[in-house]
Amino acid sequence: MSALRYKALDAQGRTVSGVMEADDERQLRQRLRQQNLKPLTVTVATGLETGSGLRQLFKPRRRLSVNQLSLLTRQLASLIRSGLPVDEVLRLTAEQSRGDHLKGLLAQVRSRVMEGHSLAQAMSEHPGAFDRMYCAMVRAGESAGFLGEVLERLALHTESSQQTRQKLQTAMIYPLVLMGVSISVVVLLMTFVVPRLVSMFASSNRELPVLTQFLITVSDFFRSGWAVLLLLMMVAAVAGFRAWLRVPDNRLKWHRTLLRIPGLNNTLLQMDCARFASTLAILLNSGVPLLDALRIASEVLNNEQLRRSALAVAARVQEGASFSKSLQQEESFPPLLVQMAANGEANGTLGTQLEYAAGWQSRELDARLGTLMALLEPLTIVLMGGLITLIMLAVLLPVFDMSSLI
Predict the structure, then answer these.
(1) Which backbone phi and psi does 89 adopt, to 5 degrees?
(2) How many angstroms separate the CA atoms of 391 and 140, rounded?
(3) In this model, does residue 18 exceed pLDDT 80?
(4) What does DSSP assign to residue 190?
(5) Does position 257 have pLDDT exceeding 80, yes or no?
(6) Mean pLDDT value across residues 398-402
(7) Calpha distance 199→124 (Å, rounded)
(8) Which has the closest alpha carbon to 324: 365, 277, 364?
(9) How far is Cα 92 from Cα 88, in angstroms, rounded to an integer?
(10) Can you give the pTM of this predicted structure?
């Protein structure tokens, strides 16, 4: 049995679409006719990874958003903890889901489960929706017999990540809107208002103030084609830099440079280490072995230098060294994480101690970002207000000179 996507006409002539499980296309068409639907097209539902070859290369993957993944995980956890079989849980979740792509994904996963594959194996075939950490935790829950509890932890983890992301996005809305409006006002003044006001001073054959001359030069630049050329050069530079970062060695050099910038390095380090410790704690508490957990958790690190340090820690642990001592040999990780790991190994509560370390770093990161956002708003107002004030002074200075001669 496989998942098939269909389009059909109902009794009123309206087009309806959806996903249904059937042995083949013929069986699906028969089911549609039994429901008074006239089938138009029937294709294999490919979930989130659609197409192959050149089509897959040029068509972007459709991924699950954090909200979709969190809601899906919560539904799976609730239904599984109620005692329902996995295939029935997937069927009910697909019926409650919105969007054909999500229904197709769940139908494909259910088909693989009914063929005898485990839930983790079926989910691993869709990396665009379920990453390695997700599949590893599901596999550990299936092996230990507490899949519902593991999915509950995953739901809490995704919800916490979504809340942190929403806080950051909400805090950035006001400064970005303010900066956008201010830049638009400045561009409007420089391209339309200032040239008309300054033209009458330029024809007076009097020497204009330096600030006014500079303003006229900048205004001419904005109105000429050089401004467009400069903008295109900036876009090309950004595109070239992104292409340069695709080379692993270049990306490593850039990430090492970021970790040396004062002020920025601590924020980036806390952000990545909090995510690393939280992921590692979830994996360990779900029954994943330490070595496998280290290799999986290293993939959540955005900084390439930190990721290589985490893999070096995993290599030392594989050779028989303790986790805390392996962390201590890598200077990239903060001392707090090393100390909490040592306490956890000594007390047999490594997962719990890593949760404490992740929570402490997350709270400190929230406080740091909150302070930064609180400073960014007035700083943006001061900078944009100062810029507009300079423009107005450049316009008014010649007026003051002419009034003084009268």
Answers:
(1) -60, -45
(2) 64
(3) no
(4) I
(5) yes
(6) 69
(7) 68
(8) 277
(9) 6
(10) 0.65
- Contact present, 133 and 296 (Cβ < 8 Å): yes
Q: At what angle do helices 290-297 and 304-318 cross, to 10 degrees?
A: 170
Q: Specify which residues 227 forms β-bridges with.
A: none
What are phi and psi for residue 286, nearest 5 degrees? -90, 0
Residue 198 has a pLDDT of 65
Given strand 2-9, what is the order of strands in its sheet?
15-22, 2-9, 38-44
Q: In whole angstroms, how far apart are CA 154 and each of 12, 120, 173, 270, 359?
A: 44, 14, 29, 22, 16
For tokens 């709270």, what's the residue? 363
Whose tokens are 């330029």? That residue is 202
Q: Are 137 and 77 in contact (CB under 8 A)?
A: no
Q: What angle do CA 251, 301, 247 make, to 5 degrees?
A: 15
Name the average pLDDT for the chain: 80
More confident of the two residues 139 and 340:
340
**Contact of 373 with 289, CB cutoff 8 Å:** no
The amino acid sitting at 399 is V
147-184 burial by CB neighbour count: b if 16+ within 10 A, else e? Answer: bbbbbbbbbebbbeeeebeeeeeebeeebeeeeeebee
Query: Using CB atoms within 10 A of its CB, is residue 269 exposed (0-12), middle (13-18) or buried (19+)?
Result: buried
> And the tokens for 316?
């030392």
Token pair, residue 272, equals 């990545």
Residue 56: its pLDDT value, please?
39
In the chain the first and final C-alpha atoms are separated, in Å, by 94
CA dihedral 50→53→55→57, nearest 10 degrees, is 90
Residue 110 neighbours by CB distance under 10 Å? 23
